[in-house]
Amino acid sequence: MKKIICGKVACNEAIARDIYKMQIQSPELGQAKPGQFVNLYLADKSMLLPRPISICDIEEGCMTLVYKVVGKGTKALSAYKEQDDIRVSTPLGNGYFIEGEELEHHTCDYRGKKVALVGGGIGVPPMVLLAKRLQEQGAEVTAVVGFPEEAFLIQELKGFCQSVHIATDRGTIGFHGNVLELIQEKEILAQEYFACGPKVMLRALSQWCQQQQLSCQVSLEERMGCGYGACVGCTCKIKVVTEAGVEIQQKGVCKHGPVFFGEEVAWDA
Amino acid sequence: MRKLDLSVQFAGIEMKNPVTTASGTFSARDSGQFYDIGRLGAVVTKGVASEPWAGNPTPRIGETYGGMLNAVGLQNPGADAFIADELAYLKQFSTPVIANVAGRTAEEYCLAVEKLSETDVAMLEINISCPNVKEGGIGFGTDPRMAAEITRAVKSVSKKPILVKLTPNVTDITEIAKAVEAEGADGISLINTLLGMKIDVQRKKPVLANIMGGFSGPAIKPVAVRMVYQVRRAVQIPIMGLGGIMTGEDAAEFIMAGADVISVGTAALVNPTAPVDILEELEAYMEEQGFKTIADIRQAFQG
Ligand SMILES: Cc1cc2nc3c(=O)[nH]c(=O)nc-3n(C[C@H](O)[C@H](O)[C@H](O)COP(=O)(O)OP(=O)(O)OC[C@H]3O[C@@H](n4cnc5c(N)ncnc54)[C@H](O)[C@@H]3O)c2cc1C
Ligand SMILES: Cc1cc2nc3c(=O)[nH]c(=O)nc-3n(C[C@H](O)[C@H](O)[C@H](O)COP(=O)(O)O)c2cc1C
Ligand code: FES
To answer: What Gene3D superfamilies does the annotation carry (chain A) (predicted)?
Structure first.
């Protein structure tokens, strides 16, 4: 059963401008797959809907989330203090396909495989847990992360990656440009790419991977109502091979995603 | 002490309690991951049409103070897929299923009703009140003549009791309620969402891709309670009351206003276990008040 649990805020601190790291403790927290998210249910009841946030890291009884203050809900979140109670769902959605069922076009054997994790802005947090799991599975992990000007979670990524490349839009740190330009310029080649970030970035990366015939998994984002499949609010368009040929179907980002293979996504539809 | 008896007879179906889910905010497989669906009096499923509908572009969801906006636009897989999938799955629970039906024309409503009549759904709820579809939908619900016409059409092909779901976006709700009663509706559910809109003043754009959408949640409850109260005094047929029910006491309020059963919509997005929590709270309220049956709640109201 999925549950809403009451966690305790263990820390909630700014790690960059408008970017906060929150740790939540609860004995009821289990494991999560990288790319899964949780719903945060705010104490202020004037804000009815939960806020979905990706899991940055999870260990026995403690979960780390990293979020950006963009509106009323995330502002309210930033005001939570140590020891405050917070209601949070158990992990939702499907994460990156890195273990379990082998798919026809994709294997989950990462021993000795070169992989690149590509994060843009607030898409970087889920890359931390992903890097950790892929490293455990024996992959050679490289991270390529892009930010407007200030970088965060670099130390955490370095713990699990062989190299971490940084790009900033204004060239304040690292490469001056976006992550795809950095990948192309530095020839950061891998057998498989994993990404989370703004749609334009996911789309460009996914198209580039398709040209190179490389596998690519992307985590999509959409405005959510429930976060668990009940409201049909969060759809995206996915190409599905049927007997009649390729057709475009609507899938729930919260339920069937948020992660999809890049080539499955109908970016223009 | 005599135990509580929450059972109700609703338009010919037996329900163990008056708590149901509201259409569009419940999915058997997904909601069922949070609680035992078998505990509910009945479930009302997501709107289904005779053929698949794609719905509206995203963003489809917005939030306002104490409420939300949605412009899902009745995305659904069509009656055949619904019967093969959601209905087949719901068979394992001992809970009556009320299937919500959408259409653009009287013929479309009838086609879906004919297909669903052949299944073991307990009842059909005809949505003539969706603000998110251009043709049909709300247009049928705002005109007493059209509301009557659809009711007559679906009654003539249905083997199941028919609930007609009304829109609050009208001047006189009792006029529409009387019109559908006169055509043989077995019950009425109200209210559907109010037509609403939100503008993102930072981006200077509407929040919803569809610009306008359906407004639901606790902010609309007073409108819903008022309409249930008015309709209860205008018609004889049973009423399913909904609109902003968040707690057991809210449920009791609708029953006092005249509802026979209630549905939980937006609350289930705010808290996935809301339908069963509200059932438990209603029981607690009855214990506290010394009420033994649902009828006791209604009879206690001095309005
Ligand atoms: C699966 C998933 C995982 C996410 N993971 C993270 C994460 O790890 N860290 C993080 O900071 N954010 C994450 N988000 C985005 C986060 O949910 C939104 O930023 C948050 O809900 C905004 O709430 P608010 O009340 O502050 O903003 P609002 O006041 O509701 O809106 C303010 C602004 O934020 C935009 N916005 C609001 N909700 C979303 C959304 N769901 N997606 C995109 N834009 C939105 C609005 O369009 C608006 O411009 C994730 C979203 C999804 C769907
Ligand atoms: C996301 C969403 C989808 C809905 N879809 C339907 C639908 O398919 N058919 C229908 O009759 N009503 C639909 N409704 C309306 C609800 O069933 C209900 O009438 C309304 O939301 C008011 O109740 P509430 O305030 O408890 O949510 C939908 C509401 C929401 C929020
Ligand atoms: S957010 Fe409700 S279905 Fe995805």
So the answer is: Dihydroorotate dehydrogenase, electron transfer subunit, Nucleotide-binding domain of ferredoxin-NADP reductase (FNR) module, Translation factors
